[in-house]
């Protein structure tokens, strides 16, 4: 059974481009072994990630993330059983923040700021759908 999980968290310490690239490389290497696909967005000390795959594999990865000292305030935004993957092409894609249209952000938030803690999980899911449709996702693996 396939599931899709979306969570948000705050970075415990500042995440620079080198550390983010290392996280993405590790995900691109490990996720295919576990049948996991997804997308990561990191901006302004916030993480938003979508994970797709088998229920037990996704749940196990989410438990590891919850225990990862790099994350604070890990918050489940959405969890659903799915018939097909939305992010099948990415072992772990990354939101290209340079292509993020502020008008898309303000569509789902009070201001043009990425803040999953200020909006509903459904709004964040809809935002990710628009990012995929607008080709604002870069591939990793």
Automatic annotation (TrEMBL):
Gene3D superfamilies recorded: 3.30.70.100
InterPro entries according to UniProt: Acylphosphatase-like_dom_sf, BLUF_domain
Any GO MF annotation of the entry: blue light photoreceptor activity
BLUF domain span: 2-93
Name the record gives this protein: BLUF domain-containing protein
Species whose genome carries this gene: Ideonella aquatica
